[in-house]
Amino acid sequence: MSEATPARPSPEELDAFRTEVRAWLKDNKPEPPDFQLPDSFMEVGTPEQFEYLRAWQHKVYEAGYIGLTWPKEYGGGGLHGLYQGVVNREMGAANVPFMVNIIGLMWAGPVILQLGTHAQKQRYIQKILSAEEIWCQGFSEPGNGSDLGNAQTTAVRDGDEWVLNGTKIWTSLGTEAKHMILLARTDPGAPSKYKGLTFFLAPVDIPGVHKTPIQKMTGEYGFNETRFEDARIPGDSILGREGEGWSVAMATLMFERGAAEGQAGGLSMVPLRVDDVVQLARECKRDGRPAIEDPEVRAELVRFVMEERALGLCQVRQRIPGLVTERPHAIMMMNKLVGTEFRRRLARFAISLQGANGVLYMGDPDAPDGGHWQRNYMNAFSATIGGGTSQIQKNILGERVLGLAKSY
Predict the structure, then answer these.
(1) Which segments within 264-375 are labelled E, that is strand?
(2) Does the pTM exceed 0.85?
(3) What domains does the chain contain, in order, with CATH numbers?
(4) 351-360 burial, b if ≥16 CB within 10 A, otherwise e?
(5) Annotated active-site positions, please?
(6) Which end of the chain is more exposed for a tag (fewer CB within 10 A), N or C?
């Protein structure tokens, strides 16, 4: 994202860097807390969880291991993307906690770097990386679901300020956030519903902003409803131009869906691994014998192993131009769909191995793995919905990658 393209490291340089990162993670991996950690940033529901994860992100940033590709002048590392890829893979292998400020690192930060002013980049980027300032997203609304273009939250100019009124829903980390990437209607009389929208970098720790936590079916929190009642934000809070918020929102969704590069790195959720399901199959019984001895179970596990390996190889393939010449963005665009559905199906299969014990949940002493897989399965649905449902992702792939005509 900087003007000068960073030098591509040699294999030897990457190997040395990998050794350095691996050693640092081994020495600095935080001790498990005495409370339950969430599966992802969408499940952070208590102050203890939040502070533990924020301290971890700050430590990783101070060590120089997130934002490696972001410009140095704004607090990043100014390095080639291969370095961040090494860090991300080593974090996954070391099973360390995820980064809590994901909306800032993966969506808000990249779009600010792409479209923001120099002053906005100076104001926000470094504090996103360090987790000093947490971000949330204000796109969805209670009455509009996935119809982002029909946003009804209004922003009315009043002198040097904008006055916000309306409601946003599913605002992950809303109770902890200082800022929100917000889509609001500034011109209700525009000829097209898409033309009257403006994209704001809105403060949400101000009078007139009310946040209500929403309990999920897991019993946890993390989602919120955010209401704006005559909330006043500065006139220079716009990202891009007034009335062109739809195009800025689409650029943001390209980052959220993994269809564009530029994210700061780090883990966004607790990885689910097939190896862990293999171990579960050894421990669970089917007809009095380990489930892994069942030929059908073994065949399904092999299919999951193949899929997991394919997903990993796709991450490598997308960085090799000669292998993606025909459709250079296809892999990035499919990652969100394939990865989230794989996670959901893997958790469901793990529960099926447990037989009658599959109905048990966290807190029950007889729940296999402490109810870990049941919790992961229920939480997995949020990732298949957020950023565009799996059905929407299939439409995007069909139209933008395969060139299929829209159906009417």
Answers:
(1) 285-286, 289-290
(2) yes
(3) 11-133 (1.10.540.10), 136-243 (2.40.110.10), 274-401 (1.20.140.10)
(4) bebbeebbeb
(5) 256
(6) C
